[in-house]
Design a protein that fits this description.
Number of strands of chain A: 10
Order of helices and strands of chain A: EHEHEEHEEHEHHHHEHEHHEHHH
Shape of chain A: globular
Largest sheet of chain A: 8 strands, mixed
Distance between the termini of chain A: 36 Å
Strand order of the largest sheet of chain A: 1-10-9-8-7-2-5-6
Structural class of chain A: alpha/beta
Helix content of chain A: 25-40%
Oligomer: homodimer
Largest interface: A-B, 27 and 27 residues
Strand content of chain A: 5-15%
Chain lengths: ~350, ~350
């Protein structure tokens, strides 16, 4: 179909975007951690395994202050001595360019950022999902998130909700699998080599320990909050709660983790009207041959996907060029944030220039 | 001068209000506690001395959920067996009536509310100001609050900022005195009998222990953050930070505690343009013969005051009628919230009816 903007490729109707063009957005970044990210080689959302849980805090510190406070080494993906900067830089570039308002929601993190944030529930981070006991009270996170987005909906025209949670595609795989979807070898990852077998082993161990193996292949069998409690993370009920509480359209800014959010939403309300939400993501996720967002999403429902390509092949920054090799791909709402900038009238070139300026 | 609304009395120019009429507000309630409120008889912002520190949490739980979660006994002022409900009921009535968006900012409380809130700095509550060491890091609270109001200013036309902090008029007296103002016997209080001598003794002990006695009568002598660190509370730097960070007009919703905020603002920036802010308060504070908001405020600067009278003499609720006898007077932004409702087109009768409906 005809694209609304240069740099954008839309799957599904464009009506949603036409409605939001030039309107007032509010950007929310939901951060969280689970001990799952400590499993060696499972995630690339941090320079080392030990630094993984500093990534969400570091990401939002970079956005808020332009500098790190929780640690010294910036969030980044490192493979064989090569590295790519955190997608927080893309999001920060958009927020600076557009002057769109934002807040950070902390759904539960081991390392709390040194910025002001909205604290949800008890702020407890998730456990290793191999235990089958990842979260104590996802319902409370969900209810509190609902309240927040209800308030933020009042004077804003739409919400853009991103996430930063290392190991988040593994917990996404856990929730999708528990809820009956076939997501094996389909979730994304932050490194060029996607450790699908490891992710699946971790999820199976968790489902076994939680006695939830009957969820496999059986949509509607497992209670959604039970699935989150067993093998989920704090981000999923937070973002889903915000979707239920919102009275304005919502752009889910992310890749396959946001697909897990839609599966959770569908499990809570099988008649949910998905025309009021869409997924905004990057071309790095959409074009990734080691994952399949569209396949999983189509199992959930008919949900629009809008893909932004910042054309980093035109960039002079080597770190950004590594995105083209499968480093990072998405996170901190980068794709949805760029979509928001397009909706606010900025060109993809202006966005890329601003990202480069910040990264250089 | 001619009043803009029935139930409102304005001191200063009406231009500010004319500009905001019908515009989009965002309401913020800043909560905090200090151990000062445990001093027997110093505050009436709670049923007993022990319950005092539960009042801010209880207030915002009532607003968010319509029920208490942190404790069982609702915040209220009790004198000789007679009682008046917390002003949170007035604020809740306005928020329900107008559907205006709000968030709670927790600047540092001993009892954290069981709601989602914006956490500032380390969340540490204030000590007893008699120690002269009330707060460790008011500058951090101030800087983080600035960031929050900067974001909330972007898609809203003005901010209304209230507070809930028991013993807050005593810490207000502390800060005003340290900064050189004559506020003796002039700050408000939540009970019909205002314990001015006790408040003064507490403040003098704190100033002595902090070696700040040279502030008395000497405006500009003491560093404002030093004054807060010695004898202030977490609310004052939070609200002041929000004023500095805001790029839209601000209504300071409160009585003499908000005057202390203006004195702190003036001490930070002697050229601050006070025409972009005003104080919105209740007739119970403005008409109180045991305190003098106008006198202290005039020492600070030329700042508009807008006084709302909900005419509780027309109410059938005995608790609300006790406001006329000097119970409560103000808090949780009640006066400024009612002003916001007037600006949004609601009549003082509609506001009072809604308050009665909630209290009955």
């Amino acid at each position: 179909m005809a694209e609304l903007f240069n740099g954008l490729k839309s799957y599904g109707s464009n009506n949603f975007l036409k409605e939001l063009k030039g309107k007032k957005p509010f950007f929310v970044c939901v951060i969280a951690t689970t001990a799952t990210s400590r499993i060696p080689d499972i995630s690339g959302a941090g320079a080392t395994s030990e630094l993984m849980e500093y990534t969400p805090a570091g990401d939002v510190e970079l956005i808020a202050w332009g500098e790190l406070r929780c640690c010294e080494i910036p969030p980044q993906t490192v493979v064989d001595g090569d590295s790519a900067p955190t997608p927080a830089m893309l999001t920060k570039a958009v927020l600076e360019l557009t002057d769109a308002p934002y807040l950070v929601v902390n759904a539960g993190s081991r390392i709390n950022p040194d910025i002001p944030y909205i604290k949800l529930a008890d702020g407890k981070y998730g456990e290793d999902i191999r235990t089958g006991k990842a979260l104590k009270n996802p319902k409370k996170i969900f209810e509190e998130a609902k309240l927040i987005s209800g308030e933020l909906s009042k004077n804003n025209d739409y919400l853009v909700i991103g996430e930063s949670i290392p190991g988040g595609t593994t917990t996404a795989l856990g929730v999708l699998t528990a809820l009956g979807y076939d997501a094996d070898f389909k979730v994304s990852g932050s490194k060029p080599f996607n450790p699908h077998n490891l992710k699946k082993e971790v999820v199976m161990e968790g489902l076994t320990n939680a006695n939830l193996l009957d969820g496999i292949g059986n949509i509607g069998k497992i209670d959604p909050f039970e699935a989150i409690s067993a093998v989920g993370d704090p981000m999923i009920p937070a973002v889903a709660g915000m979707v239920f509480g919102a009275t304005v359209p919502v752009i889910l800014a992310g890749g396959t983790q946001m697909v897990a959010v839609t599966s959770f939403i569908k499990a809570i309300d099988s008649n949910f009207d998905f025309s009021k939400i869409c997924i905004g993501t990057t071309s790095f996720v959409a074009n990734d041959e080691s994952s399949d967002l569209f396949n999983i999403l189509s199992q959930v429902d008919d949900i629009d996907v809008h893909v932004v390509n910042p054309n980093f092949e035109k960039s002079s920054n080597d770190g950004l060029k590594n995105y083209l090799k499968g480093f990072v791909k998405e996170g901190v709402g980068a794709g949805g944030a760029m979509l928001m900038a397009l909706l606010l009238g900025y060109s993809i070139e202006e966005i890329r220039d601003k990202v480069e300026e910040l990264c250089d």
